[in-house]
Amino acid sequence: MRIPFIGGNWKMNLSLEEAIKFVEEIKPKLPAANVVETAIAASPLFLESMIEHNSDSPLQITAENCFYKNCGAYTGEVSPQALSEMGVGYVIVGHSERRRYFNETNDIINKKVHAVLDNKMVPIICCDETMGRLDNGDHFSWVVSQVTAAVQGVSEDDAAKIIIAYEPSWAIGTGHSASTAEAEEGCYLIRQTLADIYSDEIADQIRILYGGSVTEKNIAALMKEPDIDGVLAGKASLSPNEFIKLANFQSLK
Ligand code: PGA
What we know:
The chain is α/β, with parallel strands linked by helices. It contains 12 helices and 8 strands. It has an 8-stranded parallel barrel with strand order 1-2-3-4-5-6-7-8, surrounded by 5 helices. It binds 2-phosphoglycolic acid (PGA).
């Protein structure tokens, strides 16, 4: 059984004080981790304090990015080993904003996926379809190629643990979510791609999320779809009340 995964991605928002207050506020209102898993991805500057204030909580404190080497002369980069030592369990890799503004290629993303797994953390790999849509209208083959490149060389055991997020960038931060059917289609395609690379059994274990303008209004319908195992929410995750509602989507109509 795939446990639903509700993730927030704060991006470069909130202050340290707000981040700590947020964690304290949502802690008692989250579902148990064996019912719905919850995660907040935040700036690396906040993670240590958030972890300190997150004791006895099911919330997974998550990184938004990391580098693909553990140490060395890489000024300004964030070491995956340091994140792991700090107690971070999940790392977002290949978000469309990283691909677009920081020129992250499929090759870089694949190296980061390995670095995260090697450090006993779980990558949340984001796939976008927009460039395929713009280039040649063939957006689905673009998604397939991103998934295939991201998991290259990842063993079956590790593959079963990873999380993939279908995040069309035209839906990110625009207030125009993909329709439920479009989101399901993208997630289904990703699961079929994983089944082709690995097997049906492995693909059945991998959690696939939808991200792009998720709110308390559309989450319940999205979560009813067979291939959508969770969401990655940006803007909606900045408000503690809204994140609590997303985490408790099972009680929303
Ligand atoms: P959004 O962002 O919910 O603000 O659209 C989603 C994301 O970037 O993961």
